[in-house]
């Protein structure tokens, strides 16, 4: 197949067949398009007899969620496959294996992770993943440290920044996270019952200053290679395994954006628990599991990142200046808090929402979850530059759950 065109299920089978050493000659293959994300086609190809399978992910020349009126670069498939390969080297076992990348078809062939569940779904259903904090903190510490000026050759890093220039996908984030929720933008989408909350967001100058500072950092700080969209829908999980997928938004940006993304999505689930748990005890219990996970993610990330820094003294002054490490980690925590808040707000009033909240069928319960998420998100944004400990983020979540009444 030569020119780019969106594949159909039959063509996906032909491509899978042509890959050497995967499927037996003459095997009956099945093909299903299973993409449920906002942007791409995803084909699941399997040989049910042998039990072998793989995934073909193809970029469309537009954003699937909106349609052809929103053109989008196919280069994101290159970025995604390249990022998965980098992440696989730096955090072995924590991303799917990439078998092939076809630049003409904007197609990545990768390991099938169907024996895992998408973490967002797992959390909605009350699943617990005791190894997750350990896995994701390793993923974050390794990928962020070793792609930054602290952990790699600083001239090579500048060349890597060039390879991950991702303007169109960054623009989506700049618009949908760091602009539109704070003005009456056409892309915004929210239930009419919380219009009062949206109007507050549009007129809160103190909030706008903090969002402007976070936006500026997202635009300008090439600190490390980010995943760029690390929400719980981009994580496949089972009790003993965690796999991060979908890094098409990867670019060199501020580290706190990735750490904040995962914390925000745990907090969005936290805000939705009134509906998903059977009674108050179950809710309290599950919320404390989520809070414990957030605490562990930051604490373990902090320890692992510092340990990598001790072992790899790439930059003399940055490794030895008294107080520099503590100052760096404090700024990283503050960015994490600010970006977590921004990621929560965008999922309530912006274009793309989360199932944890949108799938609450009862309008009153959904409204409560939305108001709680906004309350936590706004406070995190406002306190970000003053935060000194992850306990302050946790306290904001817990106090808000008490004070925002159903
Ligand atoms: N490696 C994989 N193994 C199994 N299913 C996958 C894999 N990658 C993606 N999927 C399925 O396709 C869906 C969309 O994939 P995703 O990468 O999130 O697409 P998008 O970039 O459009 O958001 C996932 O929610 C999951 O159900
Ligand atoms: C028009 S893209 C909206 C939104 O979708 C992306 O998420 P995903 O592809 O993982 O569903 C990303 O978060 C974008 O901001």
TrEMBL record:
Keywords: Amino-acid biosynthesis, ATP-binding, Kinase, Methionine biosynthesis, Nucleotide-binding, Transferase
Pfam families found in the cross-reference section: APH
Pathway annotation: Amino-acid biosynthesis; L-methionine biosynthesis via salvage pathway; S-methyl-5-thio-alpha-D-ribose 1-phosphate from S-methyl-5'-thioadenosine (hydrolase route): step 2/2
Positions with a binding annotation for substrate: 229, 346
Gene3D superfamilies for this protein: 3.90.1200.10, Phosphorylase Kinase, domain 1 (3.30.200.20)
Substrates-to-products reaction catalysed: 5-(methylsulfanyl)-D-ribose + ATP = 5-(methylsulfanyl)-alpha-D-ribose 1-phosphate + ADP + H(+)
Chain residues that bind ATP: 40, 57, 111-113, 246-248
GO molecular function: ATP binding; S-methyl-5-thioribose kinase activity
Ranges where the Aminoglycoside phosphotransferase domain occurs: 33-278
Oxidoreductase is among the record's keywords: no
Subunit structure: Homodimer.
PANTHER family in the cross-refs: METHYLTHIORIBOSE KINASE
Protein name as catalogued: Methylthioribose kinase
Organism: Paenibacillus nasutitermitis
Gene name of the record: mtnK
């Amino acid at each position: 197949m030569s020119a780019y065109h969106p594949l159909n299920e039959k063509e996906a089978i032909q491509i899978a067949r042509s890959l050497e050493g995967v499927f037996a000659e003459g095997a009956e293959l099945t093909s299903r398009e299973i993409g449920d994300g906002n942007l791409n086609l995803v084909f699941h190809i399997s040989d049910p007899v042998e039990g072998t399978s793989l995934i073909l992910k193809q970029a469309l020349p537009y954003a699937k969620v909106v349609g052809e009126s929103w053109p989008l670069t196919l280069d994101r498939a290159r970025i995604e496959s390249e990022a998965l390969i980098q992440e696989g080297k730096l955090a072995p076992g924590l991303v799917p294996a990439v078998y092939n990348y076809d630049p003409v078809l904007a197609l990545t062939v990768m390991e099938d992770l169907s024996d895992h569940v998408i973490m967002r779904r797992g959390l909605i259903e009350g699943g617990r993943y005791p190894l997750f904090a350990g896995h994701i903190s390793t993923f974050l510490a390794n990928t962020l440290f070793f792609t930054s000026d602290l952990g790699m050759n600083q001239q090579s890093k500048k060349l890597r920044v060039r390879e991950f220039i991702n303007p169109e996908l960054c623009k989506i984030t700049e618009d949908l996270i760091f602009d539109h929720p704070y003005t009456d933008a056409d892309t915004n989408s929210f239930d009419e019952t919380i219009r009062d909350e949206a109007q507050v967001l549009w007129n809160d100058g103190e909030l706008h200053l903090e969002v402007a500072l976070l936006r500026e950092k997202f635009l300008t700080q090439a600190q490390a290679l980010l995943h760029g969209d690390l929400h719980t829908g981009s994580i496949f999980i089972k009790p003993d395994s965690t796999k991060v997928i979908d890094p098409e938004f990867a670019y060199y940006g501020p580290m706190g954006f990735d750490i904040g993304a995962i914390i925000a999505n745990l907090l969005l689930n936290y805000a939705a628990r009134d509906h998903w748990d059977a009674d108050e005890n179950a809710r309290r219990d599950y919320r404390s599991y989520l809070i414990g996970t957030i605490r562990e993610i930051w604490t373990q990330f902090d320890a692992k990142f510092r340990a990598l820094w001790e072992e790899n003294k790439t930059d003399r002054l940055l490794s030895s200046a008294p107080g520099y490490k503590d100052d760096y980690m404090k700024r990283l925590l503050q960015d994490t808090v600010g970006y977590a808040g921004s990621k929560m707000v965008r999922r309530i009033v912006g274009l793309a929402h989360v199932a944890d909240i949108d799938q609450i069928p009862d309008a009153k319960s959904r409204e409560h979850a939305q108001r709680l998420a906004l309350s936590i998100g706004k406070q995190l944004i406002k306190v970000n530059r003053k935060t000194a400990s992850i306990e302050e983020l946790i306290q904001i979540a817990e106090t808000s759950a008490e004070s925002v009444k159903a």
